[in-house]
Amino acid sequence: MDTEAGPGSLPHVPGAAPPVPEAEPALVDRWRSDGGELIDLLTLVRQRLGGVAAFRLGPTPTVLVTDPQAVRHVLVLRPERYVKRSHRARLLIGDGLLAAEGAAWKRQRRLLQSQFTGPGMRRYEQRITAAARTTAARWDAYAHTGQTFDLGQEMRRFALDTIWRSLTGHPLDDETQRELEAVEAVGAALPALPADADKAREAVAADLARIDAVARHAIDAARDGEAGPHGPGLLHVLTDASTEHPEYTDQLIRDEFVTLLAAGHETTATTLTWLYLLLDRHPEARERALAAGGEDSPERRQAVQALIHEALRFYPSAWILARHAAEDDVLGGHTVEAGSDLLVCPYLTHRDPALWPAPERFDPGRFTSPGGRPTHPGAYFPFGIGPRACLGLQFALRESTVLLEHLLPAHLPVFHSDPPKAVHGITVRPDGPTPVSLKPPRD
Length: 443
Known about the structure:
Elements: H1 25-34, H2 38-49, E1 52-56, E2 61-65, H3 68-77, E3 82-83, H4 90-93, H5 102-113, H6 118-121, H7 125-145, E4 149-150, H8 151-168, H9 174-189, H10 197-203, H11 205-223, H12 234-241, H13 250-281, H14 283-291, H15 298-314, E5 321-325, E6 329-331, E7 334-336, E8 341-344, H16 346-349, H17 393-407, E9 412-415, E10 422-424, E11 428-430, E12 435-439
Parallel strand pairs: 2-8
Antiparallel strand pairs: 1-2, 3-5, 4-12, 5-8, 6-7, 9-12, 10-11
Helix pairs in contact: 7-8, 7-17, 8-13, 9-11, 11-12, 11-13, 13-14, 13-15, 13-17, 14-15, 15-17
């Protein structure tokens, strides 16, 4: 009775589910010789082998998951079997919510969850609107002077201002903004840092020191009861928690604070930058959104949100989600052994022509027309799904919608150059600057 595995395959026990189909070594070798990004290899593997497939970059296979049912199985139905391990950004965010595991993660999520529900979100409406108005005023000045500016930097400034107001109660000042550029610098450096933790930390020590200094100042102000013009913020929730929960040390509060800063602005800024690039290529989509109902109407808001969702389909906030199989399981009819690493890839699921007709076409109508998008929850998940889905989903959608409601009718960015490609790092970001100037929308 043959129970041997083929070359590069998971072992198969007779009567059990077959092993996950695995890409031939030659495919991986060609990808390596071409110098492609990881996304290029993942695309090839999915095209060749389907929505549950394996490949090897080392001695053990990694399982790629893009099939919607398999996605739901991993992230929603069996999260205890497919666990999250060390986060790539732990050097920056420490033991913050994104990197926390087990009981610590449950405690930390429970504390913050109420802040991001419907009633909790109402606390931040004025802060979001104030940040959007500040950005709109800045754009009015750019339009008046004809100044060229980097749209990506503007989107980061808006999103950072929004999360800073939500955390501290204060608008973002120029000095704090300059210091917090270190957050982006560390995030951009992470993929190329040494594997050794001490050497990696040494490489970005100066930027981490700048971030820690900002965090210490903000935490001390919150502990002293200082509240800005918007009142207490999320940081006050964390410092108040330390009086009842000893695990909320200054270090953990720092880690949560930096996690909220980093996750709360970079992904939103990147989404908005991609959306403006897509609208530059598809100006009719902007016109259709602005033609939907009047200002502040539900129809206009729905149309603006559809723009955001279609940008997120192309460039999901979490383009890849890493998991580790804690025990044996059957996934998509295939055996997954305990100890296997998995990569769940929203980026590829969102571009699957079996789920999304003409997936490379920018079509916000998918999210407003009946039957325009697949109904399976594992087919569209730009912020993840299941218990570890992004807490800030509603916050991100709300701030993006409010900003676009202010900017879209008044200003039309004209790009002086396009970034040549997308870079798939911690987020999917444009590779290069995005210089624009503004013209009146009906010139």
